[in-house]
Amino acid sequence: LKLILYINILSEKGFRKKATKIIRQAKSLAYKHEEFTIILQLIQMEEEIYFSHGILNFVQQLETLKIERGEITEKIQNLNELRLLTAQSRELQYEYM
After folding, report:
1. What is the greatest pairwise CA distance in the chain?
2. Where does the chain have alpha helices with state H?
């Protein structure tokens, strides 16, 4: 979360390259700890950097971010389904006891 604040500051001051470098580091750390909602936030920040600074030839990067966002969204949905199934199995265990 400290890195997100740092990225915001860098982005506001116009240090796009440094901000994207920190985003990559933060993403790596978030993937390591499976913090998928934070990854979504970092993807959003990266997209905002590309749009706000008017970088040319960033269509491919945006396409990559779109794919990454879809994969992360799927993982979040799978985790939510797992939690629901776990809760349902607990309820069934207690019903039969």
Report:
1. 64
2. 2-13, 16-32, 36-52, 59-96
Instruction: Read off the pLDDT of residues 25-38 as tens digits, 9 standing for 90 and up.
Output: 999 999 999 999 99
Count helices and strands (H / E) in the chain. 4, 0
pTM for the predicted model, two decimal places:
0.81
Q: Between vectors from CA 51 to CA 73 and to CA 63, what angle results, nearest 5°?
A: 45
Structural tokens at position 96: 């039969």
CB 38 within 8 A of CB 70: no
Residue 55, classed as helix, strand or coil, is: coil
pLDDT of residue 52 exceeding 80, the answer is no
